[in-house]
Predict the structure.
Amino acid sequence: MNKVKLMTLVSFFVSGAAWATTTTTTTTTSPGGAQSYNSAGTTVETTQSSALDTQVPATRTEAGTQSSMANIDTYDTGLREEIVGIIPQVGVVGFVDGSGSRQSRGVAGLGLDLNISPALGTSRDKDYFLGISTGAFYSHMGPSNASFFGDNSGSGGATSANMLLIPADLKVGYNFTPAFRTSLHGGGNVLYRSTANAANTGDAVGSDSLWRLYPNAGADFEWQVGKNVSLIARPDVTFTSGPTVLMGTLGATFIPSI
């Protein structure tokens, strides 16, 4: 009997010792992650976890997307699509005055081109220009000893002499590249002089104004520099009964969308 009690007492102490050595793990969660502790307060395990780690990255719009979508083929809104061209120009006109001296004066004007090729229906037709070229160009000639702009207040000559030139031409051209076109123009130039003998054209001269139509020929060289805008260089020769009238201008062609 005493032996049984002794065995029971030993078993009780052994069980108590085993319970005393058992650790309890407690898990606490913080915003930065989860930490585990045993009953003695010693950290057992630290696991970093963040809600941000489980998120799928948001889709972002590339900075250049908008500009890419707005990227329009410049050359489809310029020379190849031209139906109407409005062309302000400046340049030089050369002529022989009544005394036989070669003169040069400044000239300015506005040209107008009308192209029927885009209306013909095929993309190949857009490589050609076929139409009419007209406009009006003005030069203040002044006396024979005037400046480039026709001014000479000390002269008693034809100080008020002016010239007006109105082209009436056919124009034929070809786009060698989408941004470059070469054309030939020809037909006639209507030439007005407020004082007839201010420029020698081989006609009977006098003090009265004079209107005449003379044949002409020239070329147009055009470079597209932006949407609906191109630059133009335009040499032109007017064939009179006497000395030729030479004109060279530079300008910008504005091509409205039609």
